[in-house]
Design brief:
CATH architecture of the largest domain: 2-Layer Sandwich
CATH topology of the largest domain: Ribosomal Protein S5, domain 2
Shape: elongated
Radius of gyration: 23 Å
CATH class of the largest domain: Alpha Beta
Number of strands: 13
Strand order of the largest sheet: 1-2-4-3
Order of helices and strands: EEEHHEHHEEEHEHEHHEHHEHHEE
């Protein structure tokens, strides 16, 4: 029995913070204790991890188990830590080599059957891990394409805990393939906002010469635009077509936009990298928190953040 360590990432807003996950399996009354300023979802990880390990035919230690998430002063939320907790526990129990889990980062939520489920915010989490020198990231298979957007890091896609344990116990084992990488920013590919019919185009607008000219000047110079007028004059119709005049996002902008939408849970499943400027149309009854972001306990991006750096349509009918 010993102490084992691995690493994960905690998201605060859209910023990732590295968290060290330590597991101690020692003498004492049998039970599992999680410490480190946790929320309810993370406190419930003990039950998910235990069921996942048992159903993956991994031994559950009949001992006192203490799992610490450092730094303790950083609030930690969500189920992203499930996989890191399970791996640290398996290493502390001697079921997998401790040196194999010390360097990689582990992200993912565990199902009771041992399956690994996708989580939000993988891209900003991987960016934070790479910033501190990470070379290997283990993520759910459905998050692999998103994680692979970050260069100079080896992405290990995993579908089950048993599959991961087999890889960790295999000395020098080959890393499972990460699947097809998304096309580079600016390359030809399917539109990241849907089919061509779903993307409004300024060429569909008949008339409105002055409004069309205003949109073109706004797009060319990167200016703000205020459209004022009575209902039915075409303000929303024109605003929806402004993104089609804007150039594709460069690499840094695309990663920033994708990270925001990843945290918000609005990232398209079939398009991990958003290359076109986003468009958001909040309802006129939207609250301040819905527009600018916020929330109680968990900070969520608002319409302004989701539209960055493109268009958030808010009109005033007079």
């Amino acid at each position: 029995m010993a102490v084992a360590r691995t690493r994960c990432v905690c998201l605060v807003g859209v910023t990732g913070h590295v968290v060290d996950v330590e597991a101690d399996v020692g003498s004492g009354m049998a039970g599992m204790h999680l410490i480190g300023m946790l929320d309810t979802a993370l406190s419930e990880a003990r039950d998910r991890v235990r069921s996942a390990m048992v159903n993956s035919r991994c031994p559950w230690p009949d001992a006192r188990i203490t799992v610490s998430l450092f730094p303790a002063s950083l609030p930690k939320r969500g189920s992203t830590f499930d996989l890191a907790i399970a791996v640290a526990l398996l290493a502390a129990a001697g079921f997998v080599p401790g040196e194999r889990v010390a360097e990689p980062f582990f992200l993912g939520e565990l199902g009771l059957d041992g399956s690994l489920r996708p989580v939000r915010g993988v891209l900003p989490a991987v960016l934070a891990a790479v910033a501190v020198g990470a070379r290997t990231i283990v993520v759910p298979a459905r998050n692999a394409a998103e994680a692979s957007l970050v260069p100079e890091v080896t992405v290990v896609p995993v579908t089950t805990l048993g599959e991961l344990v087999e890889w960790l116990r295999c000395d020098g084992g080959a890393v499972p393939p990460a699947g097809a990488s998304p096309p580079p920013c600016g390359a030809a590919g399917p539109d990241d906002r849907g089919s061509a019919e779903a993307v409004p185009d300024l060429g569909d607008v008949a008339g409105q010469p002055f409004a069309r000219r205003a949109l073109e000047v706004c797009a060319a110079g990167g200016h703000n635009l205020w459209m004022l007028g009575p209902p039915g004059t075409g303000k929303t119709m024109l605003a929806e077509r402004l993104p089609t005049l804007l150039p594709r996002l460069d690499r840094d902008q695309a990663l920033e936009v994708t990270a925001i939408h990843s945290v918000a849970g609005t990232l398209p499943v079939d398009r991990p990298l958003l290359e076109r400027p986003p468009f958001v149309s909040p309802h006129h009854t939207a609250t301040i928190a819905a527009v600018v972001g916020g929330g109680s306990g968990v900070i969520r991006p608002g319409a302004v953040s989701l539209a960055h750096p493109s268009v958030s349509r808010g009109t005033l009918d007079r």
